[in-house]
Amino acid sequence: xxxxxxxxQAKQKKATRAAYGKTLIELADEGLPVVAVDADLSAxxxxxxxxxxxxxxxxxxxxxxxxxxxxVDVAAGLACTGHIAFTGSFAVFGTGRAYDQIRNTxxxxxxxVKIAPTHAGVSVGPDGGSHQMLEDIALMRMLPRMRVLxxxxxxxxxxxxxxxxxxxxxxxxxxxxxxxxxxxxxxxSLEIGRSxxxxxxxxxxxxxxxxxxxxxxxxARLLDEEGxxxxxxxxxxxxxxxxxxxxxxxxKTGCVVCAEEHSVIGGLGEAVCHLVATTSPHPVELVxxxxxxxxxGEFEELLTAFHLDALSIVDAVKKxxxxxxx
Amino acid sequence: MRGIRKTGREKRRSxxxxxxxxxxxxxxxxxIAMVGEAxxxxxxxxxxxxxxxxxxxxxxxxxxxxxxxECVERDRFVLAKGHAAPALYATLAHxxxxxxGELITLxxxxxxxxxxxxxxxxxxxxxxxxxxxxxxSISCGMACGLRLNKLDSNVFCLLGDGECEEGQVWEAAxxxxxxCLDNLIAIVDNNELQIDGKVTEVCSPESLTERFAAFGWAxxxxxxxxxxxxxxxxxxxxxxxxxxxxxxxxxxxxxxGVSFMEHQVSWHGKAPNGEExxxxxxxxxxxxxxxxxxxxxxGGTEVCHG
Lengths: 326, 306
What we know:
The complex is a heterodimer of chains A (326) and B (306).
Chain A: H1 7-10, E1 13-15, H2 18-29, E2 34-38, H3 42-45, H4 47-53, H5 55-59, E3 61-63, H6 68-80, E4 84-87, H7 91-97, H8 99-107, E5 113-115, H9 136-141, E6 147-149, H10 154-166, E7 171-173, E8 179-181, E9 196-199, E10 204-208, H11 212-225, E11 230-234, E12 237-239, H12 243-253, E13 256-263, H13 268-279, E14 284-289, H14 299-305, H15 310-322
Parallel strand pairs in A: 2-3, 2-4, 4-5, 5-7, 6-7, 10-11, 10-13, 13-14
Antiparallel strand pairs in A: 1-8, 6-12, 9-11
Helix pairs in contact in A: 2-4, 2-10, 6-8, 11-15
Chain B: H1 2-13, H2 17-38, H3 43-48, H4 50-58, E1 76-79, H5 85-94, H6 135-148, E2 155-160, H7 167-178, E3 184-190, E4 193-194, E5 197-198, H8 199-203, H9 208-214, E6 218-223, H10 227-240, E7 246-251, H11 274-287
Helix pairs in contact in B: 1-10, 2-4, 2-5, 2-11, 4-10, 6-7
């Protein structure tokens, strides 16, 4: 089993985005030719942390200003000359505004560009629906050659950035703004194509990604009080999906709930539905945003308003269990 | 600086322009044969940029080695206007990146020669293009990357004038001058036509010269079918290294070299039929080596020779 956070570590709360700039420094210090390209949001994405580290790293940082399409293709050009190019911006602009650039240049040319925006999902809170990106996993999953990683905490975000740098070709890393509790040990090293059982159980499987992993763990604790044993899997790698881990858990529990801070259309839930429907039909329930835009509010309030909180997962687990064949 | 330019000019004075003209005619014939055989493609904008491509590849402007396409010190070429792929493929074949006989496979199932260039398939194609407006941004990234790698290589980027309606072109223009990318040389194939009509009537980006100058670029205007003028402009642009990105607005004729295609918007994205192909090849042959259309075996693998 993967090494989880100690009781002491689990008390820490850090945003996944906070790992971005620091991990780029680590990678550059190790001699990898990483460069960062941002679009006027370098303080928020923390790519500025990399740029401010040294004169040399400042030369390896490019601020395109408010021009996300140019940002992605400048990264593409840097990749063409041997660099491992990481892009910034918020998820809504870094994927949606530059979608054709990611599709037609980065993926079609199979370039070593890492699309790694921050502030995905409802974690931008008060900024409202225009800024709350709930479709990015779907957009990135659809693209041939793109790998999709959704880290659940600071340590797994660090691992995801490292994996992105070490894996040739396009990789998407989705990071958020909110501070979230640590799930994994600080030095955890995860893999592309792997999901991780972070809590064992026998009655139902909950597959979550990103901030929903903490909600799923809270739901498992609540269910435990009612005598229901839920297994929690951190999907981490949504594409490629870890079919083996998911199916072996499903064989044991007989039903599954998917939870994501994303639209129920095109995200983790549909990826799991596809897997389950084509291999081993079992009841599936989806927790996610239901075909609507976000709205202003504090992050925690929004999790409740959009039924993404632990209690909503508890309800979904009970529904899934009730649908198990007798 | 003056001394260097004088030396360059002297060298170019002795350049064999006949050789360039012959190469251009060969490439034009290939373009017609390829598009005709494929029964689809973009002859107009391919023919308009042939002399620019010939200047770059045959005029001692670009540093490249077709036997070593990945050579670290090479200059980079980005065909932003990816629909001119037939002209690029033919040029690459004429300088040894591709077997000439492969040209006739353009746009066919299983061919490396996709309708728009795919860099995973074709040696000498640096990056896949086809979605307009992206090439200049990619070229900016390459120019930054080469500078980081401490290489003195240049990036040459060929855009269409209609393409300059894409907003991203101006994001890139801003970025290039802000970052003083004087190893970046862009050329606009200013053939004045786009699919829906005259560029000035669809959504005019006139004057490109003034607009790029306002964005901080050093801009030259040349006749895009005059080899001496083109090569002079390209060489002076790459030698300038004055802290500014270099733009060459090359005035061209869409469909250049085939009388019934010249200045005709209808030939933007239409293939000639058998008879039109024969007339076009005869015209081009008459203008160069006297080789007639009947000399081409359009059904076989070997189509035409450079």
